[in-house]
Amino acid sequence: MSSVLYDTPGPKARVRNWIYTAAFLVVFGLAMWWVLAIMAENHQLDAAKWSPFVTDGEIWTTFLLPGLGETLKAGLIAMVIALPLGALLGIGRLSDHRWVRIPVGAWVEFFRAIPVLMLMLFGSALYVRYSAVSSELRPLYAVVTGLVLYNSAVIAEIVVAGIKSLPRGQTDAAKAIGMRKGQIMQHVLIPQAVTAMLPALVSQLVVILKDTAIGGAVLGLGELLSMNRQISANYSNTIATLVVIALLFILVNFALTNTASWLERRLRKSQKGTGAVVAGDVAEVDAGGAAGVGQAP
Amino acid sequence: MFDFLNSGQYDVLGAFWVTVQLTLYSAVGSLIWGTVLAGMRVSPVPLMRAFGTAYVDIVRNTPLTVIIIGCSLGLNQTLGISLGGGTFKEIGFRLAVLGFIAYTGTFVCEALRSGINTVPVGQAEAARALGLSFFQVLTLIVLPQAFRAVIAPLTNVLIALTKNTTVAAAIGVAEAALLMKEMIENEPQALFAVFGVFALGFVLLTLPTGLLLGWVAKRVAVKR
Predict the structure, then answer these.
(1) Which residue of B81, B139, B156 to mutate against A (max A Cβ within 10 Å)?
(2) Structurally, what CATH architecture does the domain formed by A73-220 represent?
(3) Which residues of B touch A3 (CB under 8 A)?
(4) For chain B, how far is it from start to end, CA to CA, in angstroms?
(5) Which fold would CATH assign to domain B3-220?
(6) Residue A233 has what pLDDT?
(7) Cβ pair B110:A281 closer than 8 A
(8) Is the per-residue pLDDT at A174 higher than 50?
(9) How many Å lie between the alpha carbon of B48 and the closest alpha carbon of chain A?
(10) Do B73 and A238 touch (CB under 8 A)?
(11) Average pLDDT estimate for B137-156
(12) Is the CB of B72 inside 8 Å of chain A's CB atoms?
């Protein structure tokens, strides 16, 4: 199979590829050996540091699984609140009235420009000063507040991209049969945009789950990452614990990422829809930045 | 209301300067590392492709906070790696930059890979017909055009990186978010003013970047 960059390899190229493979293996092997040597020198490869994760069920039932539960809980609550809010903001940005469009646009741009960590800190301080939320629940409230403020702004952009990705003829046809603006939005654009946005929204869930870890490190939310302190205090195995925690995050997020790209492929192929899709990856990269412009294929 | 800015107790500009430095070093590093990764992902050697794919899939799905905490607790405190830094401040800064490069490189790689796909196959075929090797095709024909095509997505990566540098607060790097945390604790009566100042700082950092590079992207885009 040939690509933009190279042809199907002939005999000479195959030899060359083998040489590159060997060279890469040597470099990679040396790097791995160096890492393992340093870890062995510091007694990080001792069986006692790694075996608790297999032999000691308590490490899972007391720390890891509750931590994962808290991560999922914070992520899902944030998603459930941010979705409708983001949809409203997105529709507001497309409004025909300037007095709606401009303030909503400013709100969305503002909260997308602020780091989510700062929004969490701000949320936490707000609850300390202006509410009676107990100090146990405050980290969860603060993290969800930060995630909602930030991600509703990002979801608003996804919604805008989703609606703009629909062919213009959809709106024209709806106008031609005499539908009003609200009806066009409600019966024609939104239902199609929702399917187009699904991959991007699933990818956004990955971003939200990853960001809950900030709450664990800065605000003391009892999510998965924060369990590293308690586990390594009990078993003094910092690196092993961090590796297992990272693996758990990777497993959950990898499943979500794959769901997103599966949805995307399915939607692009489907004959029923308009074929408009807001790609998940685009949204993820854009989570920090400017408009996520969805493209019809 | 804004007296806390004049009290001389807080170095807001200094904290933002650390944020800018973190961003610049990490941006240059992740551009290099991301290009190397993208080169591996499109190379004719299956093993390198597999490594590139595995690295991107694994690191992209790990929270940045886990990576940064791992750099501090794992690399520094457990394994004693300090990257040549002497003081606590230097070590934290360098480890944070390492973490940002490892994480942001994956996004740079993905952006570049999509840029490589925008180069028409015919160009590479023509280049190969002239007898250019894989590296020559990649560095002389494909990458220059790919870079010009991906300035807009790379800008988004850069803006995301600027905001992500706040995560370095988790390991005590004295950048903007850490100072904001301290100020909110010490000046609770000025909560909105403090938040406003730091929010404005980030808007001032990210807005010009987006506008400037957006203009550059339009100017250098290859018109097809």
Answers:
(1) B156
(2) Orthogonal Bundle (1.10)
(3) 42, 121
(4) 55
(5) MetI-like fold (1.10.3720)
(6) 87
(7) yes
(8) yes
(9) 7
(10) yes
(11) 89
(12) no
Contacts 24+ apart (CB under 8 A), B177-182: B177/A115, B177/A117, B177/A118, B177/A121, B178/B15, B179/B10, B179/B11, B179/B12, B179/B15, B180/A118, B180/A121, B181/A121, B181/A218, B182/B10
The model's pTM is: 0.91
Give me the residue label for tokens 């000691």. A56
- Listed by start position, the domains of chain A span 73-220
Q: Which A positions 130-189 lie with beta carbon below 8 A of chain B?
A: none
Nearest to A125 by CA among A138, A106, A114: A138
**In angstroms, rounded to a whole number, what is the distance separating the alpha carbons of residues A239 and A243?**
6
Q: Quick one: pLDDT at residue A288?
A: 35
pLDDT for residue B85 is more than 80: no
Question: How many Å lie between the alpha carbon of B8 and the closest alpha carbon of chain A?
Answer: 22
Quick one: average pLDDT of A1-7?
A: 65
What phi and psi, each to the nearest 5 degrees, are found at residue A179? -80, 150
DSSP-derived letter for residue A59 is I
Nearest in space to A261 (alpha carbons), one of A202, A191, A195: A202
The mean pLDDT value for B17-22 works out to 96
pLDDT band at A281 (very low <50, low <70, confident <90, very high): low
Q: Does B211 touch chain A (CB under 8 A)?
A: no
Residue A293, pLDDT above cutoff 50: no
Distance of residue A25 Cα from the nearest chain B Cα, in angstroms:
8
- A262 to chain B, any CB pair closer than 8 A? The answer is no
What is the residue-wise DSSP string for B40-77? HHTSS-HHHHHHHHHHHHHHHTS-HHHHHHIIIIIIII
Do residue A289 and residue B46 have CB atoms under 8 angstroms apart? no
What single-letter amino acid sits at B119? V
pLDDT recorded at residue A2: 54
Lowest mean pLDDT among A204-218, A247-261, B126-140, B179-193: B126-140
Write the ipTM.
Answer: 0.91
Shortest distance between the Cα of A169 and any Cα of chain B, in A, equals 26
